[in-house]
Amino acid sequence: CDSVKGLEEMRAQYIKAVSKIKCDMLCYIRESKERAAEMIKTEVLRERQETARKMRRYYLTC
Amino acid sequence: PTASVGSIAARYLEEEDLRSQHIMELINAHTEELKRESEKIVRQFGHQE
Questions:
Q1: Which chain B residues are within 8 Å of A6, Cβ to Cβ?
Q2: A10 closest CB neighbour out of B20, B23, B41
Q3: Where are the beta strands (DSSP E) in chain B?
Q4: C-alpha to C-alpha distance for B14 and B5, rounded to whole angstroms
Q5: Taking the model in full, what pTM does it have?
Q6: Which of B41, B42, B43, B44 to substitute to test the interface with A, most A CBs within 10 Å?
Q7: Residue B18's pLDDT is what?
Q8: Nearest Cα residue in chain A from B6
């Protein structure tokens, strides 16, 4: 009966460790995606502003 | 702006390296905790045999 209790404790510890690792990994992946999305968003915005500036300059000189 | 795309990606990857180091430390901490706790359980239940 005691050995069953020991096994159960081992099982609980193992599941706890794996859950923590899963949690951290999900967080890491989510943050990576968010960082990449943010980077692309700011770059697209910058590019769009740059194009608008070029257009304005082009039509002003014509 | 096209030339800076490379440097932006490089900076992203640099930061990503730091983040991956950090997550490795977290995972190591979890496995260390598992080692300590399971060791404790083995000692505790080993003595009773």
A1: 41-42, 44-45
A2: B41
A3: none
A4: 14
A5: 0.79
A6: B41
A7: 96
A8: A43
pLDDT of residue B8: 87
For the record, the structure tokens of B8 come out as: 């932006």
ipTM score for this prediction: 0.80
> HSE-up of B36 (CA within 13 Å, CB side)?
6
CA angle B31, A9, A2 (to 5 degrees): 145
Phi, psi torsion values for B48, nearest 5 degrees: -80, -15
pLDDT in tens, B1-49: 555 778 888 999 999 999 999 999 999 999 999 999 999 999 999 877 5
Task: Indicate whether A35 pLDDT > 90.
Answer: yes
CB under 8 Å to A20, separation ≥6 — which residues?
B30
List the single residue in B1, B16, B34 with the smallest CB-CB distance to A32.
B16
- Work out how many CB contacts closer than 8 A connect A with B: 49
